[in-house]
Design a protein that fits this description.
The protein has 71 residues and is mostly helical. It is 70% helix and 0% strand. The protein has 3 helices and no strands. It is globular, with a radius of gyration of 14 Å. The relative contact order is 0.09.
Length: 71
Amino acid sequence: MSIEQGIVFAVLGITLAMFVWNRLRFDVVAMLALLAVAVTGLVPTEELFAGFGHPAVITVAAVPVIMLVWT
């Protein structure tokens, strides 16, 4: 296993543990994971926020908003 793969598994493991621990909001945990891969250089800076434009991400982000308005 290469160093980059080890860092990815570490970030994923810590992120999963933080989701399960549930002390921080899920969006904060996700942004911390994004920051971690950016700081380590695993994802190029010009591609960091490319996923936010995908229709699936927009749909998933819209569900809590709809649920908030609905209730």
